[in-house]
Amino acid sequence: MKKVILITGGCGFIGTNAADLYLSKGYKVVAFDNLSRVGAAENLGFLEKQGGDFAFVRGDVRDDGQVGRAFEEHKPDMVLHLAAQVTMVTSVENPRQDFAINALGTFNVLEALRQVRPQALAIYSSTNKVYGEMTDVPIAEKERRYAYRGIKGISESYPLDFHGPYGCSKGTGDQYFLDYARIYNLNTTVFRQSGIYGPHQFGIEEQGWLAWFCNALLFDMPVTIYGDGKQVRDVLYIADLLRAYDAVFQNPARSRGRVYNIGGGPDFSLSIMELFEILEGLSGKKFRYSYGDWRPGDQKVYISDITRLDKELGWRPEVSPAEGVARLYNWIAENKGLVKQAGVFGK
Description:
The protein is of the alpha/beta class. The protein has a single domain (4-342), classed as NAD(P)-binding Rossmann-like Domain (Rossmann fold, 3-Layer(aba) Sandwich). It contains 13 helices and 16 strands. Strands 3-2-1-4-5-8-13 form a seven-stranded parallel sheet, sandwiched between helices. Strands 14-11-16 form a three-stranded mixed sheet. α7 (209-218) runs parallel beside α10 (272-283). The longest helix has 22 residues, at 95-116. The chain is globular and about 55 Å long.
């Protein structure tokens, strides 16, 4: 019998790539999305053209009835919970909405899972922001980037320190997902993600920073660097993230109730300055930029320690930042009309 995967936020950047992958594998794919994100409608149009067994459910994770009905109707074997409010800036401006989407929405998904499909495998897309500013981690300043001193990356054992409404709401969902494995014996797994990028990402200034800078260069828009441009993130191309998701789905006994830090790790990291160098080399153009104040909660460095994923599931990233950024840049260049239509720079 054909397997069914339900993807909340299924028309977002990660959701669209995941849906496309599982359609190609012959799964029935159910995309649950309220189409509120920039680019979501365009991504839905893409998915509807891919063929295969695809179903779209227009719904909101804040509505437990809508979530429950999606589970009842489609009876998923696998669940990717990606629907979220995704920016720190928005969470500070509207913390109630942020809580309702990220905390209550995740609770609604878990309750539908528990009551309707407790045997299903479920992954939650969390964030490195659950670790807070990490001010106790020693950092060295180099010519073009900041770097950790004494460690290669942040492991899953690092103390949680939810910072800002976004950190609190995503952290709440993170902990609920882990606890439902413990208390209700559900097959839930958490990924604390860092720097995911790739095609179908309609980056805006507050979120999706690699895509945002690609957009700005291609559309000749000025940008603001908040801080000094030396801040570093490990970055992970979308195809590598999807391989990790699939490794969890293929190894439920090993991954149930586990949390994994996932990003490019120490070898696949970029500062803003280093990204600018790659993009200017690809385009033959120079950025127009100015500097702004550091934003609250912004980490000078975040690099994931991906050792646990390697040891437990045999996963490591494969697509280098240079190769991945080129793929993203070329996708945006080929789809400038779509990006403009989506309203990345406003409508």
